[in-house]
Amino acid sequence: MTMVTVNLFLALAAILFCIGLYGVLTRRHLVVVLICIELMLNAVNINLVAFSSIGPFASITGQVFTLFVITVAAAEAAVGLAILIALYRNRASIDAIKQDLLRW
């Protein structure tokens, strides 16, 4: 059986986080921005699970934090999609550049 090292998990998480960060910073479509935020949260989850499985005292703490992050991500997605639907109904667009309600 092949042993997967923690470095591979960290590399995967770094790649996912960078893809998510690139999407958040460059995309104008707000649904895509929400999806990219989810990618970044999943990168954090991979790190938490990887770090919880290493060391002489491997514990379940990282996995419990992962469940907490998944719960927060689900709530964030629900609230974010509700906000997007309200924005679309009021402005007929979900382009991030056109949403200037909170700008000074």
From TrEMBL:
Top-rank taxon, per record: Bacteria
Record flagged with keyword rRNA processing: no
InterPro entries for the chain: NADH_UbQ_OxRdtase_chain4L/K, NUOK/Mnh_C1-like
Record field: catalytic activity: a quinone + NADH + 5 H(+)(in) = a quinol + NAD(+) + 4 H(+)(out)
GO molecular-function terms, A-Z: NADH dehydrogenase (quinone) (non-electrogenic) activity; quinone binding
Keyword Membrane: yes
Protein's membrane topology: Multi-pass membrane protein
Parts of the chain that traverse the membrane: 6-25, 32-58, 64-88
EC assignment: 7.1.1.-
Keyword terms of this UniProt record: Cell membrane, Membrane, NAD, Oxidoreductase, Quinone, Translocase, Transmembrane, Transmembrane helix, Transport
GO biological process, one term: ATP synthesis coupled electron transport
GO cellular component entries: NADH dehydrogenase complex; plasma membrane
Signal sequence residues: none
Subcellular location per the Swiss-Prot or TrEMBL entry: Cell membrane; Membrane
Its biological purpose: NDH-1 shuttles electrons from NADH, via FMN and iron-sulfur (Fe-S) centers, to quinones in the respiratory chain. The immediate electron acceptor for the enzyme in this species is believed to be a menaquinone. Couples the redox reaction to proton translocation (for every two electrons transferred, four hydrogen ions are translocated across the cytoplasmic membrane), and thus conserves the redox energy in a proton gradient.
Family: Belongs to the complex I subunit 4L family.
Subunit structure: NDH-1 is composed of 14 different subunits. Subunits NuoA, H, J, K, L, M, N constitute the membrane sector of the complex.
Protein's name in the database: NADH-quinone oxidoreductase subunit K
Native organism: Alteribacter keqinensis
Taxonomy of the source species: Bacteria, Bacillati, Bacillota, Bacilli, Bacillales
Gene symbol of the encoding locus: nuoK
